[in-house]
């Protein structure tokens, strides 16, 4: 096992990464006690240099980081903490501490390059619209109308995508646009049923390495 290369203060940087989306959430420090507590409890613990004490992420806010896996880099001087966050990772309320872009200073919800991160960000946006009191929100209007309206839109978007896919003259841009429309409305449907997108990711991951025919045959009858 790779030994931890603690620095002269007995610390090592720990990078917290969302285990589902791959988004980098925060960077903190661990000492031997913080690492031990993390491994024992399954919750991320760090060492605060400013307060000179051990702290559990979310001990005040409730926004815990549930650890799925711990990894150490090839030199042993950095830890990767793969986590399932229960809320925003940043004390500002952002999902990630890396929300400001240089050099223009633009702020957003973090880098959305990873496909899973894009869908997770869309899920958070839909949840925010659902909780909003703003009158003008297409997403909120769908959720307020309920599943009949949402299902009708999913069927409509599915038909439009099928038409574009079946049209040999359809440009790729139209296929991309219709696919995005369908994915958005499916995500709204999942939100209406309180089904997190992470469960869909997990199901897709489970299916790797097995025959599609075998997977379907193993499903319980409806």
Explain what the structure shows.
This protein has 2 domains: 110 residues, Phosphoribosyl-AMP cyclohydrolase (Ubiquitin-like (UB roll), Roll), CATH 3.10.20; 98 residues, MazG-like (Helix Hairpins, Orthogonal Bundle). It has 222 residues and is of the alpha+beta class. The chain has a 4-stranded mixed beta sheet, covered by helices on one side. Strands 3-4 form a two-stranded antiparallel sheet. It is built from 7 helices and 6 strands, in the order E-E-H-E-E-E-E-H-H-H-H-H-H. 42% of the residues lie in helices and 17% in strands. The model has no long low-confidence stretch (mean pLDDT 92). Helix 2 crosses helix 3. The chain is globular.
> Secondary-structure element sequence?
EEHEEEEHHHHHH
Instruction: Please tell me how large the radius of gyration is.
Output: 21 Å
Beta strands, count: 6
Provide the structure class. alpha+beta
Name the strands of the widest sheet in spatial order: 2-1-6-5
What is the number of helices? 7
| Percent range for β-strand residues | 15-25%
Approximate helicity band: 40-55%
What is the CATH H-level superfamily of the largest domain? Phosphoribosyl-AMP cyclohydrolase
Judging by the overall fold, what is the CATH architecture of the largest domain? Roll
Shape: globular
Mean pLDDT value: 92
The total number of structural domains is 2
CATH topology of the largest domain: Ubiquitin-like (UB roll)
State the end-to-end CA separation: 47 Å
Determine and state the CATH class of the largest domain: Alpha Beta
Low confidence ranges: none
Q: Report on the biggest sheet.
A: 4 strands, mixed
